Amino acid sequence: MNMNDLIVKKRDGGALSKDEIRYFINGYTEGEIPDYQAAALLMAIFFRKMDKFETFELTDAMRYSGDTIDLAGVRGIKVDKHSTGGVGDKTTLIVAPLAAACGIPIAKMSGRGLGFTGGTVDKLEAIPGFRTAMEPEDFLQQVNDIGIAVIGQTAHITPADKKLYALRDVTGTVENLSLIASSIMSKKLAAGSDAIVLDVKCGRGAFMEEQAEAEALGEIMCEIGRAAGKKTVAAITDMSQPLGKAVGNSLEVIEAIETLKGRGPSDITALSLCLAGIMICLGGRVKTTAEGKILARQALESGAGLNKLRSFIARQGGDERVIDDYELFPQSSLRREILAREGGFINGIDARAIGLASQHTGAGRRTKEDDIDLSAGIVLHKKTGDKVSKGECLATVFSSSQGRLADAEKEVARAFDISKEKKGEPKLVKKVLGL
Question: Is 417 a catalytic residue?
Fold first, then answer.
């Protein structure tokens, strides 16, 4: 085959065949196809799009571009969960222990954060001593022993996606449904679970800002999962404001622990119970998601979820004392309170602005090579719909650098929209697809 022929074919609106897609993925992964030709094809796909057949074949080719994980040795129906990314989204740290406490095996691979979205691996590494790398046999044994294990993505899983994502990021070809769906689902399918729950965010702080776009992405990912023989459900959820009140690695782990203690913000608690309920249902413990949610709530109220988190931390080398002593987490040396310049009601909180502010504090990365400040971030004291008085504290910003603190402070102050009239709060779970 000739790469130029593929570029011209897609440029002119043609559909790529299975063999052509595999030729491209294998050749680019092996370094036989140069970046400039891959970029040209990505741009053609961006404008001409892919049909369902092409999207399925692209996902499959990327899935098998490297190693896959065999979870056959893990007892029970394994359920994975993935979020498309948002600000303050620490649900994995809550949902995974709740589902595991209800008998659902959680064998999860998670990634690091880039830009204003946080990564689960970064948050877990804020726990002193916590290991996110382990040998495959130890990973499987841990799931069989305590029902849960979370590791970082290895270089050998879907290497095609790693190369393509880096290229898309610098060529303006990120926002395409087929490219997004194949990127996410190739990793989820390679990870080996029997069922997948997708949390597809929409709103100002999400990848897909419009609900219709988020639904279209959710639909195609569900179809890809089902075509691969996996039970797949997508929840379309709000990201117009940050989820919960904490944004930043240590801060988010603390909020997750507080949530498992029954003291978490109402939105993060509600979403976690919803997602855990779906996972428990897909894992075969109950027949409906409503019944699954009841079991998840019981695990929350009884402390079973918190105990599962404790054993999970200890098993992966972390200091489980953090659950009772938050001072064991990395601590910022500087903090700044952001005060309301006027009174009224919080009409909205720009999640993207808060995410960028968190990145300014040092809690997020500008490039994948950046080191992050695990102690930095933002804690919101007000959420959309809350009443606020002039001079009242809206948020506290944490950092270890005066310069970073000043940059973040400006972003946070701009993020709050205060009006004299109270407006409705955004609906948290907008739609569930695939049930």
Answer: no
